[in-house]
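step 3/5: co-fold with adenosine-5'-diphosphate
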Amino acid sequence: MARPRLLLLLPTTTYRAAAFVEAARRLDLDLTVASDHVSVFAAAQPTGLMALDFAHPERAAGEVRGFAATHPVDAVFGVDDDTAVVAAVIAEALGLRHNPVPATLAARDKHRQRVLLTQAGLPVPAFALHAVTADAAQVAREARYPCVLKPLRLAASRGVIRANDPAEFVTAFQRIVRILEEPEAAACGEPARQILVEEFVPGGEVALEGLLAEGRLRLLALFDKPDPLDGPFFEETIYVTPSRLPDASQRAIAECAERAALALGLTSGPIHAELRINERGPWVIEVAARPIGGRCGAVLRFGEGEGASSLEELLLRHSLGLPIASFERERAASGVMMIPSPRAGVLTEVRGVDEARAVPGVDDVVITAHRGQRLVPLPEGSRYPGFIFARGDTPEAVTRALRAAHASLEFVVA
Ligand code: ADP
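step 4/5: write tokens
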């Protein structure tokens, strides 16, 4: 039998590429990587690389249909919110099993998602949509506090700001308008001309990694976020699993995430959800039809020893209908720290990387920012300068190792 062919959709600015390409190699797939950036290598390697116009999924699907006539494609996988939509359009054109296109669109749009989840009776914060041209002072007078203002289509907490009173509201609103005017944000069109305002949901936050199949959400991992996320900006730092929440809370969270994913119409593939939990139970902050972002996938391993599999391998196996040996995460506790941008400026040097790597329990310290790169903290920025990974016997030990490693790093910024 021919090796299965996977079409992997990779945006040009992703940290996820290496992990997915490695997973495809381990599975011995015929891999075609498509990106929206015309690769200089595409001509030399016509079946391995492909340029696709991700901004026009129908056009991209037409091209893939032509390609698939001579190189049959068995699965299409998009790694982020945008390519998940493109993958669904292409898969539909090829007659492959995939999420319905409208479901992926709803998962990507924070407002559409709120509307659908509210209709389905899920616990979501009250919300209202405003045009960027609205009179911010007027809207601020009518808002309830505390609230959270956010763009519809950005990621990694970019442009997400808490306001406690009308003055903070107006400042936040104007700040988001300026972020949405930046070219790559403005490129998404109408969604960049609106701002979502939501009731602030108090409580601890978790992230859930899951896999949808046959109408059920299989829980792959539940992460606690030990650093409080109370605003005004919502910087992700530590994710650690297994969760220390009581079993009953964990079950309620998983059930809530499953109902939310199904309410959006999603049917198949990875889910990454953020939920808050307080005395009234779990609340859906966001459900995405993609795996965990950035380099963070490396925090998860399934099975033990030789046969252990990466998250990416598990997901690619699922998309191709290949057998999956274990959905059970390894026994060790595991965690990642998304390193916050220390301050705005040009990165000249990162000190202490060897010391950070030497901290017991630390698996790896990956500095993704390069010398000369401009670091932009939240709420304007969205890229972390690096990631720290640790494993240990308990989530507490993992958290301590991550903090100790972070404390030995010094980002020199000019
Ligand atoms: P993004 O997709 O950019 O990460 P989210 O909508 O998930 O945007 O918001 C990012 C973070 O902001 C969340 O993980 C959460 O900590 C915080 N947040 C967002 N909305 C709310 C809300 N209504 N109440 C409390 N916190 C929120």
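step 5/5: annotate
Residues 110, 125, 148, 150, 154-158, 160, 198, 200-201, 205, 229, 234, 274, 285-286 surround adenosine-5'-diphosphate (CB under 6 Å).
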